[in-house]
Structure formats: structure tokens, C-alpha cells
What we know:
Layout: H1 2-10, H2 21-35, H3 39-52, H4 57-69, H5 73-86, H6 91-103, H7 107-117, H8 124-134, H9 138-152, H10 156-169, H11 172-185, H12 190-202, H13 206-219, H14 226-236, H15 240-252, H16 258-274, H17 279-287, H18 295-304, H19 308-318, H20 326-338, H21 342-355, H22 360-371, H23 376-387, H24 394-410, H25 414-431
Helix pairs in contact: 1-2, 2-3, 3-4, 4-5, 4-6, 5-6, 6-7, 7-8, 8-9, 9-10, 11-12, 12-13, 13-14, 14-15, 18-19, 19-20, 20-21, 20-22, 21-22, 22-23, 22-24, 23-24, 24-25
Pfam families: TPR_19, TPR_8
InterPro entries: TPR-like_helical_dom_sf (IPR011990), TPR_rpt (IPR019734)
Keywords: TPR repeat
Amino acid sequence: MAQEDDAQQDINVDDLGNVSNTFKEQFFEALKQKGIENYDRAIQALQRCLAQEPKNAVIHFELGKNYNALKQYDAAEESLKEALVYRKDDEDILKELYDVQFSKQDFQAAVTTVKQLISYNIIYKEDLAKLYQRTKEFDKAIEQLDEIDNAQGSSIYRDNLRRVIYNQTNNKEAQANRLEQQIKAAPGNIQNYLNLIYVYSEMAANDKAFSTAQRLLKAHPDAEPAHLALYKGYLEKGQVENAIASMKIVLKSNQVDKETKGKVLKDFMRYSTENPEVSNELESVLSDEDNDKDPKELGLFYLEQKDKPKALAYFFEALNDYPTDYVVLKNLALLQIDALQFKEAIITTSKALEVYPSQPLLYLLQGVAYNNTSNFNKALESLEFGIDYIIEDAQMQADMFTQMSEAYKGMGNNAKATEFLNRATQAKKQAN
């Protein structure tokens, strides 16, 4: 009943004109059915109204809304256009028509409709720019965005849309020029500098990105994100001390997100691998508790460096941030087994299998851990589960059979132990 009352309030009875009581009964029946989402019945009632009043704009409008609700977009568009014949340039009808045309992805038709809507509300100018982008009329889209910016100032939405357009046209130079203009017009806007640095980086214009970062820092000494470009520039120029100083600022900054900090640290770790003379500086950075570090990235780095104790420590720490991450769980279990921490490996693999129950490697690792704690029945149970998930991996089959042989041997079943050892040998031959 509440829906029906609300629906009836959408329509002013006076808008219907001088109509019969029968017409009104059918019309409000249509609103009732629409209110309870019986759109087909609403359309039937409206068509009975239309038979009495074929030139009634309200009826055509309501038909359009119901067809739209049923996603019968062609019928909806036809009804709404008919409504506009009798009520030209009506804002509500045009808005519904725009919605239908956008749903149909008929962006060219939507352009015409939105141009009419702009006379009611200039907010539709942004829609027009977006539609031009969809119809690949990029010059018109940029022109429209510039017009809005000149009248209202820039906005994040329009800046992002402009960036999308420049990416589609691969016109980075135009984007850079636009940002340079924005910096001149509003030197207090730090984001324009950062966007320009990003564009220059995409253009591989590293010197320009570096100089823009220097300009930003000169204008805004507290703009710590500028050091994202500076540390790269310093590394390229071989100015390692300056690079490290900038990197430390980034890692301690509240203005830089954790993911970006992880990438910075990863860059520096890669650089230190290629330039061992800065390894002491890297250790200093990693040992500084004030730096925001990603333990997963550090675990992977030390694993690559074959420093297993440090990798193990960082992967264990990474569980706090990545409790269900497969890479973290897998590497942690492998390193725990390597460090003879078999009870810990059982806990890790049990947690991992709750999230990844079809990963055969986890069953294998758990089987190894159980075998090394003399829990042979559990080992066999894990291995028998896991072997069903192996697909075309003869080496993993061989490893599974070897561990099953160990489990049977531990249980005193030498016949089975020999059988599975032989199966492991056959699987190894297939793998080779």
C-alpha cells in the first residue's frame, strides 16, 4: 500500500487532463501494479488507457518507464519519444529516455538527449563529455571538459576522465601540456604535480619527471610523495646517498600508501642485489623499525638471496597481513620444514588447506611434516587426499609416493613401503 501511495504521488492527477473515471481506474491500477513490480500488468492497464486517450503524454511516459524496468529498451524508447511529441522537452521524460539509451549503449542517440537536458541542469555537461568519450569523439570530449573546468574549476572525476581519453588516444604530450597549464593556474595544487610526474614517467621522460619532482618539492617542501620520483632519478644518476635519503622519507611517510612503499623497497632491494656495495645501507633501512615495510616482499627477497632464516622470519611475520595468501603460506611451510620445524609446519599447512583444499603441494608438505613427527597415520591420510588432486605432474606424484613409502615403513608395513617406493621410481622415470 505504501508503494502504491508513493507511486500515485509521482503523478499529478491534473496532468491526465479531462478523462473518464474508467480511465482513471485503469491508470491507478497501472501505478499499483508498477509499485509492486508487476510491470507486465501495469503495461496492460496503460494500454487500455491508451485506447481511450492515444495522445496522452503521461500514459506514453508511464509505458516507457515500465518497458525500461523490464529492459525492453526498444519499446521503452518508442513510448518515451511518443510522450515527447505531446510534451516537448519535458525534463523527466528526457531523463528516462537518456537512461534507456545509455542502457542500450546507443551513445550517439544519448548525446542528442543529454544536450537537451543541459538546459535544465549543467551537471549533464559531464555526461556529455563522457558520451563523447564513448563515441570516440575525443576532441569534443576534451573541449567539453575544458569548458566545465573554466567555469567551475577542475575536479578529480574530470581529471580522471581526461586521463582516460589521453590514454585511449595515446596523447601523453597533450596530457602533460594540460597539467603544466593547471600547475601555472593553481600552483598550490600538489596533485597536479604528481599527475604530471606520473605522465612523464609513462612517457619514459625520466628527466622531466625528476625535474617536476624537484619543482614540487621547492614549491611544497612537505610534499613527501615527490621523493617517489626523486629516488629513482638519483639512482639513475648514480647519486646513491640522495636516493637512499629520498627512499627513507618515502618509507616513513604518512602520505604514501603501503603498496607503493613496498614497490619502492623492492626497487632498492633489486638495486642492492646488482650493487652489493649498498647492502649495508639496505640492512640499515630494513632494521629501522620506523620504516613501513612489507614482510611478504622481504620474505621473497631473502628467499631469492638464499638467506632462509631471514626469509622464514619475514614470512612468519607476513601472516599478520596476509593470513590467507598462498605464496606466504606455501613458502612458510617449506622453510619451516627446511628448518626442521615440523610441528609448526603442520599448523601452517592445516591453516593453508582450510583456504586451499585442492592444492596437492600443501598435502605433500603436511605429509612430510607428519612423517617427521612419527605421526604416520596422519601422514598417509594427507598424502592419499593430496594425490587425487595431482594433474599431469609426475615429479609431484613421485614425491607423494616416496612419502607414502616412508609412512608405511614407519608403520612397520614393509610390503606397502616397497610397493610405493617402486611406484615412486616409476613416476620419476616418467618425470624425466
